[in-house]
Amino acid sequence: MGINLHNISKQFGQFTALDAINLAIPEGELVALLGPSGCGKTTLLRIIAGLEHADQGEVFLKGENVTHQSIKNRQIGFVFQHYALFRHMTVFDNIAFGLRVKPKKLRPTPAQLREKVHSLLQLVQLDWLHDRFPDQLSGGQRQRIALARALAVEPSVLLLDEPFGALDASVRKDLRLWLRHLHHELNVTSIFVTHDQEEAMEVASQIVVLNHGKIEQKGTPSEIYDHPQTDFVSRFIGQTNVFSLQDNESNWLDATGITFEGAKGIVAHVRPHHIMVEKRDDAAHTDIFLKDWQHLGATIRLELNRQLPNGKASTIYAEMPSEKFRELALTKGDRVALHITHAHWFN
Amino acid sequence: MTAVNSKPTSLTLTDATWVRATLVGITVLTVGLFLVLPLATVLLEAFAKGWATYFDSLMQPDALAAMRLTLLVAAITVPLTTVFGVSAAWAIARFDFRGKNILLTFIDLPFSVSPVIAGLIYVLIFGAQGWLGPWLAQHDIKVIFAVPGIVLATLFVTFPFVARELIPLMQEIGHEEEEAALSLGASGWQTFFKVTLPNVKWGLLYGVLLCNARAMGEFGAVSVVSGHIRGLTNTLPLHIEVSYNEYDFVGAFASASLLAGLAVLTLLLKTFLEWKLKQDVKASRQAAIE
Asked: Where residue B1 falls among pLDDT bands split at 50, 70, 90?
């Protein structure tokens, strides 16, 4: 069951936003739609919601073909980037809205409504704000209320459009973990859109990487990071150093310990933490030196400069734990040798 | 900058004193000449022969009929304009359709057309020699020189008011709250009454207020279609003209004082609503930033 998308395509004039998307999302998963701006992820989310309609293709929610159903019948909950709370209603009325607009037969009694709203407020830990208005709340509080409001109608699917995009960095970090825990508790199939790959990796159980309206790769965070299937995914997720064999790098790569027998391509992508760094005193053996480094908390990122045979300079990024860096006792300008332990090959 | 004294940082305070004095002086003079003086004159002339004569003039059957007609025209025109304005604003701010710009131009049309021309249009269509003249005569329906004609002419000059207020307001507020309401299961009507309308209420009231002021005070267009039939087709503005032309100055100014009172009341309410509107727009802008 869950969500199924068959051949979804959407064009805006000449621009192709989505190109024959086929996607199956199992029930209960927390899925991230990840990609750069303009890749079609928000359009896809809105098509699933029913806020927009695909030019071709079909949407199935829990086995039912909802392609031509309006949003109000799809039983989805939607959370907007800018919260979209009803500014003239209190927090309580905002959350109660979905319950109050139900058809008369299905409407809860005032007592039931009060209980439901307060239990949701307790779930998001904001019961004390029930009589405030949205403009009296902070961004993080607003988004949690928006989430409570979406959950009030007990949707079968929860859709979030860049939910933390409008928040401060520290609030964002807190809410990411909070959303993940909430999902474990509730187990509602959820899809959220983001362009922040760290956020996708931290929160989601499945990531779908989109680019130019097509799905590049779908998998768990570790699958996406450790085994990128396309050049785009490798570059987009995490940091990558790119070496092309066509630039006469074969000898150099050989010297650094990379074997390319059985390599499936001519371009090597190397993650910074797969580069080991050693200090070398003699200039004869190496033409790489340490240009700069950045302190990133538990790890240090090294900026290494390398003179290419054609006279140009290229920058290589390596990462290592702070302790290791201290052991090496490197200073700027020191000559180093590299040892590459792993690479992904692409064409 | 011609600042002689060094202290203030605000732009206004760096103007030289004589500049400030001149600008304020011009404003006071303009307000005095064009607003205060006429209003004072109306009141002075109205009460020139004492309170008793003032009330007598207002109690004349023709004056009372004029007041009734003005109120009737406003009571019909304002709701119709409001309904049209809200529908047009919804269509323009929420949908994309071909001819949207043409519709917007049409809505602005009454502002660029002289009210006399507006009245003439209706005479040409509904008058005895007009397009529909013979058909109307056959069915014994009177439009020109009767109340329906006055209502139509007033509708023409007032219909942009509510739409022009609501369209930019709804575009500014955005449609996310409405999308949220739909996602929660609300129908189109529920969304409109519970979410859209409360959000635009101050802008709507402002538009209704302006519409009412224009409907009650309209002279040119109504004058052409009215026929000036005493006691039947004279609105209050027309009654004032008729009284003045017959040298009944107290009567004319007494009726005028009513319209002046309406003007002052409108101005006060308008200021209040403008302030409320500014608050709403500020809040929605802040919500969009955060």
From this structure: very low
> For residue B236, which phi and psi values (nearest 5 degrees)?
-60, -45
pLDDT at B9 over 60: no
What are the start-end ranges of the H helices in chain B? 17-31, 37-46, 50-59, 61-94, 100-112, 115-126, 133-138, 147-158, 160-173, 176-183, 188-191, 197-217, 220-226, 236-245, 249-289
One-letter amino acid of B240: I
- Which residues in chain A have their CB less than 8 angstroms from residue B194's CB? 86, 97, 101
DSSP A117-171: HHHHHHHTT-GGGTT--GGGS-HHHHHHHHHHHHHTT--SEEEEESTTTTS-HHH
Q: What number is the ipTM of this complex?
A: 0.85
Q: Is B276 exposed, middle or buried (0-12, 13-18, 19+ CB in 10 A)?
A: middle
Contacts of A51 in chain B (CB under 8 A): 179, 182-183
Interface test with B, best of A66, A79, A101 (most B CBs within 10 A): A101
Show the tokens assigned to B246.
Answer: 């017959």
Average pLDDT of the residues in A58-85: 92
Distance from CA of A340 to the nearest CA of B (A): 45
Confidence of residue A72 (pLDDT cuts 50, 70, 90): confident
Closest-CA distance of chain A to residue B284, Å: 8
Cβ-defined contact of B195 to A84 (cutoff 8 Å) = no
How is residue B146 written in tokens?
A: 């009767």
pLDDT digits (tens, 9 = 90+) for A224-243: 999 999 989 999 998 898 88
pLDDT value at residue B127: 86
B270 burial type by CB count under 10 A (0-12 exposed, 13-18 middle, 19+ buried) = middle
Distance from CA of A144 to the nearest CA of B (A): 14
Q: Is the pTM of this model over 0.90?
A: no
